[in-house]
Amino acid sequence: MPHIAPLAMDQIEDAELRALMARAEELGVPDALFTRIVARVPSYAKALLNALIVSHGAGNVDHRLKEIIRIQLARFAGDPYFSALRSRKALAAGLDEATIDAGCGDYDDDPRFSEAEKIALRYADQMYLDPSKVDAAFYDEMKKHWTEAQIMELGGFISFHYSMQVFMRSMGTGPLAAGAAARA
Fold first, then answer.
1. Can you give the residue ranges of every domain in the chain?
2. Does the N-terminal peptide bond of residue 30 adopt cis geometry, omega within 30 degrees of 0?
3. Please, what CATH class does the domain formed by 63-170 belong to?
4. What is the spatial distance between Cα 29 and Cα 82, in angstroms, rounded to a whole number?
5. Distance of CA 1 to the CA centre of its chain
6. pLDDT for the residue numbered 77
């Protein structure tokens, strides 16, 4: 059980928040546990959920790559909650566990990833492991593969999702068992 208990669904009366929760549930990230915890402050929960949905499910960077990065960061953070979640959209687009594991491991030598994807994965791991390596030369290399708008999308995505993962880890959360969200 998390350090702050999630609200029961019948305690969440804000229609806009419930609609955002349904959109998040369709995407699969985050699941109902996160949304029911942050629902204690509806205005803040709406802003967070909207940002999570837009950063993960929209934009000009492939959703499958974002999903690999999200899981890579969750594993770095030691977050069992976000590490276990899988985006339904990414899975429907063909992302599989072997590719996720490869992207979270030795992706530099893996032929599954393009040079653009490899530098995006490196961007994520260096922002976490050693941000001093994300310097002007690094951004120059990124610009060979990504537009500046895509680099900003990746950077914002990495920053936002990593911080949410650290937050959930601090809450002592793990993933909800299948069907538990509906029952709670």
1. 9-57+172-183, 63-170
2. yes
3. mainly alpha
4. 8
5. 21
6. 85
